[in-house]
Amino acid sequence: MIFVRGLAIAATVLLSAALLGAADRRPPAVLVDHHVHVHSPAILAFLPAYCASPGRTSKCDPEFTSPLTVTDLLRAMDAAGIRRARVMSTAYLAESPMMVPPVPDHAEIVRKANDFTVALARAHPDRLEAYIGVNPLTATALPEIERWRGDRHVAGIKLHLANSRFDYHRPDQVRMLTETLRAAAAAHLRIMIHMRNRATGYGAEEARIFVDQVLPAARGTTVQIAHAAGWGGIDAATLDALGVFAGACEQDRTLCADLYFDLAAIKPAEASGQDKAALVALIRRIGPGHFLPASDWPFARDLGAYYAALATLPLSEIEWRTIAHNVGR
Predict the structure, then answer these.
(1) pTM, entire model
(2) Assuming Cys at both sites, which of 194, 245, 274, 296 could form a disulfide with 226, CB separation 3.0 to 4.6 Å?
(3) Is the distance from CB of 163 to CB of 93 less than 8 angstroms?
(4) Annotated domain spans of the chain
């Protein structure tokens, strides 16, 4: 009896130690943050009018308008032990239909903003990769992609369909989007796309249009879907859209060979346990190797805190380590 009690006490001590160890365990270091922003001077000068535009339906986040520099980004990366980041140009803001009336020099702002982002990668080639920004529904998109063809400091293009007020149910807009993806692939540029638009009811139907009609145009290059097919957080629309990708990947694994989803602005602390479990189930169906660590800095100013919070998703330690160490090709 004494022996049995001793074993029980020992087991309790070991279990307590294991639980304490899990609580104290630091998440593995993220190798590459796949989604950060640094506004150019041209965009910073443009933002006051953009944020005050009657075409906007919400206020600009103070983090969004902060005049932060590449030095601030590198310090945040260093503090979190992150070696590299992919910097997404915000040039597309200058040609957003939310800017009412449009500024007459919008095309020049786009060029200056992209010049600035690419210059960051030239100045810090061991730390930063540059993605130029375009609005796929404008006449400047294809010429701007062509302008950067062959530049070794340009890794890809960034598209933001909500900012462009893209409509999946307009064939002309779907055609323009596919032409933009095809041009990026032909220029050997990766594609990073915020695919959730501003339409009420976004979800599975729009994801099917993307998978069936848009994604094939990117054949030959990597596609990164921002915010796990949402726009931050975990909600029904995001889960419905991501579920379409899960089903498509299960049906045809070649479809997902060059397809990734970033986990920028997911914020598990603000999600229900049910939604977190649903997201993890979809990650497992698609495969953790297709999910990328990303923060949307400067919205997540403290990168260490952001990734520590992200690591609270109910993934196994091996799954989280896989995601933390992923680098999109």
Answers:
(1) 0.89
(2) 194
(3) yes
(4) 29-325
User: Residue 157 is encoded by which pair of tokens?
Assistant: 């293009």
Distance, in Å, from the CA atom of 172 to the CA atom of 74, rounded to the nearest integer, reads 41
Name the token pair of 151.
Answer: 């530049």
pLDDT digits (tens, 9 = 90+) for 141-185: 999 999 999 999 999 999 999 999 999 999 999 999 999 999 999
* DSSP character string of 180-219: HHHHHHHTT-EEEEE---S-TT-SHHHHHHIIIIIGGGGT
Contacts of 126 (CB under 8 A, 6+ apart): 84
Is the separation of the CB atoms in 125 and 100 below 8 Å? no
Report the alpha-carbon distance of residue 329 to residue 325 in Å, rounded: 12
Contacting residues for 320 by C-beta, under 8 A, at least 6 apart: 27, 28, 311, 313
The single-letter code of the amino acid at 247 is G
- What does residue 194 show for φ and ψ, rounded to 5 degrees? -85, 95
- Sheet hosting strand 32-36, strand order edge to edge: 32-36, 84-88, 128-133, 154-160, 190-194, 223-225, 259-262, 291-292
Given a contact cutoff of 8 angstroms between Cβ atoms, the answer to whether 148 and 156 are in contact is no
pLDDT tens for residues 234-270?
A: 999 999 999 999 999 999 999 899 999 999 999 999 9
The fold of the 29-325 domain, in CATH, is TIM Barrel (3.20.20)
Contacts of 32 (CB under 8 A, 6+ apart): 82, 83, 84, 85, 86, 292, 293, 326, 327, 328
How many CA atoms are closer than 13 Å to the CA of 286, on its beta-carbon side?
Answer: 30
Q: Which residues of the chain have pLDDT under 70?
A: 1-28
Residue 34: what are its φ and ψ, rounded to 5°?
Answer: -90, 10
Angstrom distance (rounded) from CA 312 to CA 44: 34
Number of residues that make up the chain: 329
Judge contact between 277 and 241, C-beta under 8 A.
no
